[in-house]
Every structure is written in structure tokens, then in C-alpha cells.
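Anyone have C-alpha cells for RNA-directed DNA polymerase from transposon X-element? Sequence:
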Amino acid sequence: MPMKVSDFRLPSRRDFRALLACESHEDDSRTGRSKREWIQEGSCENLMWQLIYSAPFNEQLKLSAGVTLITKFHDMSTVTFPWQYNGLQALSIQRVFLLQKVLFDVVLHSVGVSEYGHYTVQAEETDVNAMWSCWKTMFLEVLDSHAPIRLKRVRKRPSLPWLSKDIRDKMLERDRLKRVAMTKNDDVNWAKYRSSRNIVNVALRKAKSAFYASQIENVTGNPKKAWKTVNDILGRKQRADDVREIKINDHSVTSPEEIAEKFNDYFTSIGPSLAENMDNSECNYSQFVNRVDGIFHFQPVSSSQVYKLLNSLSVCKASGIDKISAKVLKWAAPVVSESLMQIFNRSIVSHVFPNEWKVARVNALHKKGPRNMLDNYRPISILPVVSKVFERILYKQLVEYLDAENLLSEHQFGFRCSHSTVSAQLDCSNEWYCNMDRGLYNLVIFLDLQKAFDTVNHVLLLGKLEACGIRDDALNLLASYLADRKQTCQSICSSVHVKDWLSFPWNQIYVLGVIRSRVRDTKILGVYIDESLTWSKHIEEIAKTITAGISGLKRFRDFASRDVLVSVYNALIMPHFDYCCEVWDSLGSVLAERLEKLHNRCARVIMRYKNEIGQSELALRDLGWSLLSERRFHIKARQMFKVLPDLAPVRLLIS
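Reply: yep, here.
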């Protein structure tokens, strides 16, 4: 029960007796006024009772009954009333290291020669799992001693970074002048307040512009960080993926432990359940895989290679179940690269992949649809950072061997150097155009294999690798990498089993040009393909995206400088004009003109020009921009330069 003390400041004893005589909202027989009318008089404008009886206050506190007056009290009596309180909001807590990079380097170098150096000498006497366990224990002990993790309370309303002390002082002076103007209520003081207010507004606008300019410059060329910065500026908050309720067969699950268990069971069973629906007929891969007589071996890695990989780690990557972050490993790279090299080489020699590196921490990421359905989430597996470094070492050696022996299909464009979505689209569209020129029809079937990686048959995969010359120790290491993999969702841990065949959605086949399940356009690798290759659908989608981007530019325009707006345009809008333009640049003049108009709108928004005749050309000239058609020509010229000196995929090379 809260208590509020206030001075009633009754104007006279007669009014005081009148207030006592009236009941709640009943009329006073002597004055003919209700209590609310009595309170709303100008002479009693700031009474305590007005605070209690005011509608907003009543709605906020949810008063269940009127206030009961005490017949004998003075003008400083206590007023009490019920208040329904919903409880404190949960505080935002963040885990942080209590150590800076400079101090961290000193600590690691102080222990690196003695402890880590001694460990590397003794490393060859133990197996790889014991080596990793010992290394991790020592590393975490040093980390906990000199850089402990602490829980930090995060402010709900962070301070604005562009507010300097000078601006804060000006804001205080503005507020002071406003109070003086409201008290004296004369033209002179109101003029002083307006002048101070304008000065503060100008200072805030300039400070905002300078801050956002520096933020945009730091993320130019990185669309992901650019979008994050823009969303922060526009106040767009990413919706949290916290799952509070899951429905299983009309049964609601709300316990965090049960939710984690349900997610874990679903993610580990979705692959096998899809594979079981497929035909398990035998597949003789030897019919299309040429057996290689040579034998591939993984080569030992040097400490310089390990250091280079550690130093190139992105500090934004999440840490795995071992709780060793990429930032800490990157800081410690000069000290720990030698010892990690010993572990990596021991794994290669013993052809055993460490068990702890095969345990993934899984997060459920919402895709679309209701948030209480398991089907609307996809798993994000987070492996230990050290495991990812070792995987990159093995991957590089394996891909170099496959490329050297020409074992990969020329139609394979994914996960290969010098291959991209552009080269894949060029290969397909070129063949389609050639068929159309010869008067032929194009029959295209796009296949989407559900859970392709989760339903790979490991026995078949290892058999194909053996036929490609990856045998003996190398094959045993890859088999160890695939075997006994586990995942944990919160505190629940279970094995992941994958088997049998890829699951293909047979009920979702779309065929271009066929009456049954016919579609006139479809999206492939980010580009909309229509049946006549006019690219009208793709240009329509580009126009929608660019129009939304122009709206964002207009919102920036009030506080951002021209350079900031140009940086935002280059980071968020121009990539949509350029993406795969080598493929769809055969569009008609009407569609090309539509893109040029959008380009002109962007220029006018940035230059703050009106939509009048000649303003678009003036804006483009002032910004130094060329037409989109000229830009696409230069992009195609760069693509041709890659083709001529054999820098492009084999399918695109000119014979």
C-alpha cells in the first residue's frame, strides 16, 4: 500500500468544511457542487485530490475504490490508495571479460614460455583427446585467473553517444531558460529560451550527423554491418528469438528445459524421418565416379599457418561448448599457435578427430510462421572455434587435391574458388539463349533437396571418397570426423544420427512450360527467371526493394550529411542494381528506363533536389554518378577480363 503525502492547500476554512461534507462524487447541498467540480476550480488546480481523481492517474494505478476521507485531519494528512503493481522488469545481463587486449598479451606472454612451452614438448606422449583436454584446462585456468568472466548489468536506455559535455551544458541552460520563461511569462524571456533551443537543436543535428558519418564509414563494403548500423539509427529493434511456448499435439510446453528437449529431439530426428520416406534402393556410384589410383594424405601443418588462421578469425563469431571465444584465440595467437599446431598434427597422424570438437551448441532460429511451432525453426550449430580452424586446414588440402586431379564436376559451382552465383546463372542463361536462337524449347526443373546435409549417407560418401584416392589414414580421419557427432540444446545433449538418402519433395515439382504445376517465373540464386527471359519479374522485385531503400534515405536526410547518404546508398541500394546484372542485362528498354528512374530518385533524395525537369541530370552530375546502363557495361567488361586469362570456371571459358 503506497502512501502519498501532500499539502492540500485549501483556500479557506469554508472550502475545507465543504470538502469534508461531500461524499465521493455526490453533490454538496451547501455549495451545489460535486467533489470533482470543486477540485477542478482554478483556485484548487494543484491539489493532491486532483492527482488522485484525474483519469490518466486512475487508469494507470487501476484504483478499485474511491478515496475515503477522514473527518478529523489537518491540511498535511496522509492519503492512501491501492496500487496494482506488475513487478520489476527483468534486467539485461551481459557476460564480459574484465581484461583489455594489451593486458591480455602481457599475461599470455608471461605464461607462454614456461607452461605452454613445456606442454608442447610433452604433447607427443599423449593421444589427441588427452592433449586437447590438457590444453583447454591450462588455457581456461589462465583465462579465469587474469580475465575472469563477470555478469555486467546493461542499461535499458543507453546514453546517446553523440551527446558531449558541451551539448549537455547547453541543454541544461535551455531547460533553465524555459523554466524562467514559464514563470515570468514575458516576451524577453521567451525569446531567450527560443534562441537557446535553436542553438541546442543545431548542435544536436551536427553531432548526430558526424557520429552517423563515422559509423557508416566503418561499415562501408560490409552489407551485414551496414544494415545493423542503419537499423540502429532508425530505431529498428530485431525481434528476439526467445521461445517461451511450444505446442506439441495441442499440448503447450512452457518449461525452458522441456522446450530445449523438444527442439533437440526434433532437430536430431528430422533428417532420418525424411530419409525414411525415400526409396532405399541400391546406388552403384562406381558407374559415374572414375577410380583414382593415387592416394591422398593430409600433410602436417606449420605454426605459421595456424597463426595466420587464428589471426584471421572474426571476433563476432559465437563460441562453442568449450566457451573459448574467437576474440580470445585471436589475441592469444602469437602464444598458442605452436601448441595448437602440435594438437592438429597429432590428430592428422593418429587419424582421430577430437571428440569434444564434434559437439555442437544448437540455437533455434525462427524462419517464418507462428513462433510456437517446431517446424518454423531451423537449427544453427555452433562448433568450437578451434574445431573450425582445424576444419579449414583439412578443407584447403582436400580441395586442392580434388582440383588438381580434376575430380569435381564442371557443373559444380557451389563452395569452389572462382565460382559464384553469377557464373552459375551465366552458364544456365547462355545455354537457354542458345536453344532459343536455334528454335528449341527449354525444359527446366529446379530441385530443392530438403535437409540435404542432414540426410547424406555417410557410407556412400566415404565410399566415393575412397574411389577418389582418399584412402587409409586420410579416410579414417574423415570417418572419425563424421562419426559420433553430438549436439546440445541448452542443457540437453543427444547423439545425431543421419542415414540413407536425400529427401526430395516430390509433391513440389515446378516445370516451366508444362500445364501441370506450371509456373511462369521462379526464383533461383536470388534472381527471378521468367519463361520468356524478359526479366520483368526480377526488375519488379528490384523496384520494390529500391523503393523501400529510398524511403530509408529520406529518413536519413534530416540529420545525415551528403557523404553519409552516399555511403548508405552504396552499401544498401546499389548492390541490388548490380547483383547478377551480367545475366539480366538483356532486358528491354522499358525495364531499363524504370531502373534509371529509380536511380535518379536516389540522386535527387541525396542532393535534396525537387522532382522537376533537369534536376535528375543535375543531381547525377553533382554526385559524379554514371547511368546504370554504363555501370552494367563496365561490370560485364570486368567479367570478360576474368574469362580471357582463365580466371573463370571452365564452363565460361572462351575456346
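The longest strand covers residues 359-366.
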